[in-house]
Amino acid sequence: MSAGLKGIRLAVIGGDDRELFLIPELEKLGAYIVGVGFEKAGSIQGLHHESSLIEAVKNVDVLLFPMYGTDERGGIKVKYSNSPIVLNKEVLQAIPTHVPLFIGWARPALKSAAEMMGIRVVETAFLDEIAILNSIPSAEGAISMAMDSSVITIHGSQCFVLGLGRNGWTIARTLKGMGAHVTGVARKPADLARATEMGIDAVHFADLEDEIGRAEFIFNTVPHLILDKVILERVSKDAVIVDIASIPGGTDFEYAELLGIKAMLAPGLPGIVAPKSAGKILAQVYPQLILRHLTTPLSTSFKP
Predict the structure, then answer these.
(1) Nearest-CA neighbor of 15 among 57, 75, 59, 89?
(2) Dihedral sign from CA coordinates of 170, 175, 179, 183
(3) Cα-only R_g, the chain
(4) I need a surface site. Which of 14, 55, 206, 290 has the fewest CB within 10 A?
(5) Contact at 8 Å (CB) between 205 and 228?
(6) How far is CA 5 from CA 1, 10, 11, 24, 145, in A?
(7) What is the b/e burial string over 101-112, where b = at least 16 CB atoms within 10 angstroms of the residue's CB?
(8) What's the rounded Cα separation, in Å, for the pair 175 and 62?
């Protein structure tokens, strides 16, 4: 963390336990940090509490919103707030055009509104330097949930990993290291070839319906409806599904429940299972990212 943040005013808006570890690290680099939504968190090194979101966004150089993003109504995850916080049109209008807004992932409505107002939005969940490191606690958390929900061991089991992206590869590698028989499901020929090279069974999504019946554990990383009614009909009733894709996930959870299949939606695992590690990951990446976007023209909006 060689990049200094001295003289830079940051607003950290809501979040979960990982922000409790992120804030002191940024303060050590010289940042002045205003926090909204932390009144129940007690004393946090380097944090100056602000009760008004409108006032907070008016008087800072950078806005840091949670990795979780917002819900459909603009609601922000605020574990330590006494009241809801909403990122709405009124708040966006109060943001000076030179202030970049960092957020894990932004819904289309937020992107559209911000673009019209000339606000630079930086989606951090899709940056390799964050997503790859975050895949470690995500994988550990997903596998832990699967183990807690089953009567068999991971070792020797049939594990399917749907989607071989940043999270999928880490889950697959970890499962293989634990002695599982791992099947990686992907569409790209390069991903299927890499799976074979790693000693992982490779299955194309087009063949998933025929193959899924073998699975005892299923880990979905794809944020689209993959485990639909047709596929779930082929899933063993004893299988466990852990879906770590962003809300609403890639599983028809109602139908899974109807079939008696254990299926869990578990987005945002880094902040749940390993908040200290997740906060330190953000503290490693944010300083240089902040400095880069403080000096980047507005014409590069949405291109982190």
Answers:
(1) 75
(2) negative
(3) 21
(4) 206
(5) no
(6) 10, 9, 13, 13, 38
(7) bbbbbbbeebbe
(8) 39
- State whether residue 77 is helix, strand or coil: coil
For the chain, 304 residues long, the average pLDDT of each consecutive 10-residue run is 79 94 95 94 91 92 93 90 92 93 92 92 92 95 97 98 97 98 98 97 98 98 97 98 93 98 93 92 94 67 42
Q: Which two tokens stand for residue 134?
A: 């975050």
**Residues 265/249, Cβ–Cβ less than 8 Å:** yes
Q: Tell me the pLDDT tens digit for each residue of 158-174.
A: 999 999 999 999 999 99
Check the CA dihedral 81-86-92-93 and report its sign. negative
How far apart (Å, rounded) are the C-alpha atoms in residues 227 and 220? 8
Q: Which residues contact 112 (CB under 8 A, 6 or more apart)?
A: none
As a whole number of angstroms, the distance between CA 90 and CA 76 comes to 15
Strands (E), the chain: 9-13, 32-36, 47-49, 62-64, 101-103, 121-123, 158-162, 181-186, 201-204, 217-220, 240-243, 262-265
Q: How far apart are the first and last CA of the chain?
A: 19
Q: Are 106 and 69 spatial neighbours (Cβ–Cβ below 8 Å)?
A: yes
Residue 104 backbone phi and psi in degrees, to 5: -55, -60
Amino acid at 244: I
Sequence-distant (6+) residues with CB within 8 A of 138 are: 167, 170, 171, 244, 269, 270
List, for residues 176-212, the tens digit of each pLDDT value: 999 999 999 999 999 999 999 999 999 999 999 999 9
